Amino acid sequence: MANRIRLGNATLTRVLECQVDDLPVAVFPKTPPDAWFELADEFAPTFWNDDRWRIALQVWVVEVDGLTVLVDTGVGNDRVRPRMWQLDHLQTDFLESLRRAGIEPEDVDVVINTHLHFDHVGWNTMRDGDAWVPTFPNARYLMPEADYRHFNPDGPVQTSRPRTEEEESVQRHVRTVFADSVSPVEGQIQLWSDDHQLTQALRLRPAPGHTSCSRRAQNFASWVTLPASLLATIEMACAIVIFEVTAAPASTSSERSCEYREGEG
């Protein structure tokens, strides 16, 4: 697809962070092994490479109603992410890619984190010496309140007592992600729940399933969907961005809502 397209009154730009060509199916342990191969021929070579997934980590930029809006912010550089070694201490030229697309970090008005998993909040911040600072200093960071309450230091994920080594690993992961990618933008966070009208053309609505409160953005016209977390597996769900492209009234939308491991993806 083209990296930039015009859709009605909105301009949509895809900015690639990186391509992962060897994501093991073990990342999704609850999926029956045979299920991965049922549609392998249809997925290859774009999404499937032998016995491993190929995925693109990318950010969507929506320019509409005079605002520059980022939808999710990828993994980010310099992050400690041992639970997925392919993304541990990732180093990319994402900010330069964003600039090549004509977007300066200072020009971003709104960042929408559809949910607070590590691969959707990373570029909320960047390393400045020993500190994490906001990557987009002039932006509001819109976060689903249910996710924020669930993952923050006073929430159930961080305060519960782990019963297994796996639960302890997840808890360390959530604490690390919140500390480096959410807490540093605390002064710019705007929490929301239920329906939230962002602009005349852009509305946020819940799309639960992937986390306690995944999000979608919608308008009242023909809809364009941008899956925030989507793989062909029963373990994934969607957080969807939908915005206006024509003046025709919308009728229905569809989402998949499936199980996934807490705090990841």
By CATH reckoning, the class would read Alpha Beta
Radius of gyration: 18 Å
Number of domains in the coordinates?
Answer: 1
Order of helices and strands: EEHEEEHEEEEHHHEEEEEE
Helix content: 10-25%
The CATH superfamily turns out to be Ribonuclease Z/Hydroxyacylglutathione hydrolase-like
Overall 3D shape: globular
Biggest sheet descriptor: 8 strands, mixed
Task: Provide mean pLDDT, rounded.
Answer: 80
Q: What name does CATH use for the topology?
A: Metallo-beta-lactamase, Chain A
End-to-end distance = 23 Å
Describe it.
This protein starts with a strand and ends in a 21-residue tail after the last strand. The protein has 265 residues and is α+β, with helices and mostly antiparallel strands. Strand 3 (48-49) and strand 4 form a beta hairpin. It has helices at 40-43, 94-100, 145-151, 156-159, 165-181; strands at residues 4-7, 10-24, 48-49, 52-64, 67-71, 110-112, 125-128, 131-134, 140-144, 189-192, 196-199, 202-206, 215-218, 223-227, 240-244. The chain has a single domain (4-244), classed as Ribonuclease Z/Hydroxyacylglutathione hydrolase-like (Metallo-beta-lactamase, Chain A, 4-Layer Sandwich).
